[in-house]
């Protein structure tokens, strides 16, 4: 069993390195907050742990559940917001440029 | 053997989730597909959560209501945050991920009917890494939000003390693994890891923040993977390891952009090394320039490149800079932005600020692709950047910065440096750029200086 677990870790590690290889630095922040959201996968662990009995375990599982769900949802939403901004900045940039041109003809 | 070939609904969701994380990450590497990649990855997360809910035996209503509360809090934080505060928010989310892994590891060490030494070892490791990610991220948050300054905090025997804490953590982990795990081991592990995280990050100075943020991001992934190994959940293992590996790659990119090793960032105080050599530089003549002259230089320029740094973020000058770039473009000038990988306080910080201000993504250039054409540029405008434009890093082997890749603004036909005063950058080193004959210094607050230049254009 331990070999299979280690094999999964090994393959995922190499895959992670390959996926991120040579990503443009312009996308570093969304990449970071996006992967940050993925690391909130512990929410699954927290759900699975919530069946462990005992008052201590219940409280700790509840903390894990809350923290991980803030991490997951907040991470995805803020990444999406950021990436939408990257899109908008192109169109906004162009309209602003034309706006300034009309300004100059007026003055 | 029959059972091996039967996939439960939860298993199918799990496989879909892993596939979605991999595809999503792949697509996040390109600008055109990044938004879709993030959404695919979030669908994968939803599949994983639904799958886990099917497996959960008890308390479904309680679980769903806690997740709903967390969701509401996460959305509220994510929608409200200003882009200038993005590094802080990333630090908070990252810390919460570490906290969750710490908690799952903690539960794994509680006494139970079926003790398992591998699970205990993995739980102990996830407490340590998760705890470091949690407390380290909180310190990073406090530093980024300016609660106690960004300077490096050191005290005598700090490294020895940190090492002792690590030994305590390893000992407690080994004890829990070899003997019977008990809550006391878990509590010792939690305490040691939280102290380690605080002491580890508190000694990192402001300019090294991008490295630390990327590293903490990697830690929260590794902690999730370890917690997943402890409870034998492939979803946690795959997703956590992907994040751990990508965070580590990002950390390496950041270190390379500063020509420093990771251990040098984590254990070496940069300020201490450079204080001695900084004073030997003779200070040459600095040529100040007025707003009017800066305007005339820019007005006559056919091509201008902006090089922003953390100072632009501090002065909140990105909107004024965007306006100036638009005025220059309207004036028939070729405008580019060149962004150093470690400019700012987190990886990609400047890109986010400029995007928020409305700067066209296509105007942004990376260091390598632009440096060759720098000599064709009429005016390079440095706004709140210092160490990343210091030519000593390229030419002077005695400089502490030597070997760090820089933006070659000194090769432009002329350079305007917008700066509050003659203060040093993060490295505490004199900047040879400021005394070059083709460099003009425009002293003052970045936002008001740029705004004054804009007024000249409009007038």
Give me some keywords for this one.
A: mainly alpha, 4 helices, B: 459 residues, alpha/beta, Rossmann fold, 3 domains, 6-stranded parallel β-sheet, 7% strand, elongated
Characterization of this structure:
Chain A has one domain. Chain A is about 85% helix and about 0% strand. The longest helix of chain A is centred in the last third of the chain and has 52 residues. Chain A is flat. The C terminus of chain A is likely disordered. Chain B has about 450 residues and is α/β, with parallel strands linked by helices. Chain B has 3 domains: about 60 residues; about 180 residues, no CATH class; about 170 residues, 3-Layer(aba) Sandwich (Rossmann fold). Chain B is built from 18 helices and 6 strands. In chain B, strands 3-2-1-4-5-6 form a 6-stranded parallel sheet. At the A-B interface, helix 1, helix 2, helix 3 and helix 4 of A face helix 1, helix 2, helix 3, helix 4 and helix 8 of B.
Provide a brief overview of the structure.
The complex is a heterodimer of chains A (107) and B (459). Chain A has 107 residues and is mostly helical.
**Integer tally of domains of chain B:** 3
Number of helices of chain A: 4
Which chain pair has the greatest contact? A-B, 89 and 121 residues
Strand content of chain A: under 5%
How many extended strands of chain B?
A: 6
Topology record:
The complex is a heterodimer of chains A (107) and B (459).
Chain A: H1 2-20, H2 28-38, H3 42-49, H4 55-106
Chain B: H1 9-27, H2 31-55, H3 60-80, H4 86-109, H5 117-144, H6 158-178, H7 183-202, H8 209-230, H9 234-257, H10 262-267, H11 270-278, H12 291-300, E1 303-308, H13 310-315, H14 318-330, E2 334-339, H15 349-357, E3 364-366, H16 367-371, E4 379-383, H17 392-395, E5 414-419, E6 439-443, H18 446-458
Parallel strand pairs in B: 1-2, 1-4, 2-3, 4-5, 5-6
